[in-house]
Design brief:
Order of helices and strands of chain A: HHHH
Distance between the termini of chain A: 93 Å
Number of strands of chain B: 7
Structural class of chain B: alpha/beta
Strand order of the largest sheet of chain B: 3-2-1-4-6-5-7
Oligomer: heterodimer
Number of helices of chain A: 4
Largest interface: A-B, 10 and 16 residues
Strand content of chain B: 15-25%
CATH class of chain B: Alpha Beta
CATH superfamily of chain B: Spore Coat Polysaccharide Biosynthesis Protein SpsA, Chain A
Radius of gyration of chain B: 17 Å
Shape of chain A: elongated
Number of strands of chain A: 0
Number of domains of chain B: 1
Distance between the termini of chain B: 24 Å
CATH topology of chain B: Spore Coat Polysaccharide Biosynthesis Protein SpsA, Chain A
Order of helices and strands of chain B: EHEHEHEHEHEHHEH
Helix content of chain B: 25-40%
Largest sheet of chain A: none
């Protein structure tokens, strides 16, 4: 029992360090914008923290009524992922709105261009 | 008084020519602006045959709301006093334009809805649409104290006051019932007048059997959010 808990702790630490480095590396290569990395940072640091200080996890588990403390790690991870997904939904919504405004403006600019072309032809003729 | 007819069209090659000719005949004092919402058929080609008709070819499909809003932006920026919305599928009879426009000209309303259910109209519609219309009618009565019989009708006339608001905020899909709430929140006057409508000839209604449920849920949430929002959200 004790050994198994220890093992998941090690996996937790390795996993969160890996996540942290992955996020940093993606930013370094310019593939991830810092504004979108903040939540990932927050989650990987939190995950690392509770993996190292297991007593925190025990207290948290007791507080919310989880019998097997390491499964609280999964709860934290899941909540983090939900937060990130909601964040993504808002980002997509913003992009959709921006796309709509740009599409409308492109369409309106095109008739303006057509009108100006006709006027230029009139002036020539 | 400068008047604009906004005609949103998505794959309407069968109907668009008739709609344009109808408006030219019945409401010759209106400039016509067709919003081609990324059609894949010959809609744009057909409209371009008309010398005096303006057309916006949206590079991608935005949905009816995004298309009509493009018309509102144009109407606002070009300084039109009145704009009317006539769908490109031929359901809205150009001969009825005068009826929906009259209350705007007389200054009795800021938006006028052409209703299938007022007056002598004998328009038949699907079960789901009737059900949706009933629910919106009750919502309107409850929250707005407004007896609007046909919230889903897109046959509408607007003055500049209404256009100024809707050019900034207009839902992407199924915008008609929500627009009523937006304008009422800003204190604008809405009037409904009875009109005759044509049964659909070509093309398919944007509301098919399976989308009816999405329609109801989406618009209901939309309306609930509009009720929760403060008036300032819509700016102006």
């Amino acid at each position: 029992m004790e050994v198994e808990v220890f093992r998941i702790q090690i996996i937790g630490i390795i996993g969160s360090i890996f996540l942290l480095f992955l996020v940093i590396e993606l930013i370094r290569r310019g593939k991830l914008r810092i504004e979108f990395s903040l939540l990932w940072f927050f989650i990987s640091v939190l995950f690392l923290f509770v993996s190292i200080f297991r007593s925190l996890l025990d207290k948290f588990s007791y507080l919310v009524g989880i019998g097997y403390p390491p499964s609280a790690l999964f709860l934290i991870l899941l909540l983090g992922l939900i937060m990130i997904l909601i964040h993504f939904s808002t980002v997509i919504s913003n992009l959709k709105e921006a796309k709509k405004i740009l599409t409308q403006r492109v369409g309106l600019l095109e008739i303006e261009i057509e009108r100006l072309k006709k006027e230029i032809e009139k002036c020539k003729g | 008084m400068k008047k604009l007819a906004i005609v949103p069209a998505y794959n309407e090659e069968k109907n668009i020519e008739g709609v344009i000719r109808g408006i030219q005949k019945e409401a010759p004092d209106h400039d016509i602006l067709v919003i081609n919402d990324g059609s894949k058929d010959r809609t744009s080609e057909i409209v371009r045959k008309f010398e005096s008709v303006k057309i916006v070819d949206l590079p991608m499909n935005l949905g009816i709301g995004g298309a009509v809003q493009t018309g509102f932006i144009y109407c606002w920026e070009k300084g039109y006093d009145i704009c009317i919305q006539v769908d490109g599928d031929g359901q809205h009879k150009p001969s009825e334009i005068k009826k929906i426009e009259e209350p705007i000209i007389n200054g009795e309303a800021d938006m006028v809805i052409g209703s299938r259910f007022l007056g002598s109209s004998t328009y038949k519609t699907t079960f789901f649409r009737r059900m949706g219309i009933k629910i919106f009618y009750l919502a309107n009565r409850l929250f707005l104290r407004e007896k609007i019989k046909d919230s889903t009708s897109g046959f509408r006339a607007y003055n500049r006051k209404a256009v100024e608001i809707l050019r900034r905020y207009y839902p992407d899909d199924y915008p008609e019932p929500e627009a009523i709430f937006i304008l009422k929140k800003k204190g604008l006057r809405i009037k409904e007048v009875g009109v005759e409508m044509e049964e659909r000839k070509g093309g398919r209604s944007s509301i098919t059997f399976f989308r009816a449920i999405y329609y109801m849920v989406k618009v209901s949430i939309g309306i609930a959010i509009h009720i929760l929002r403060k008036e300032e959200f819509y700016g102006g």
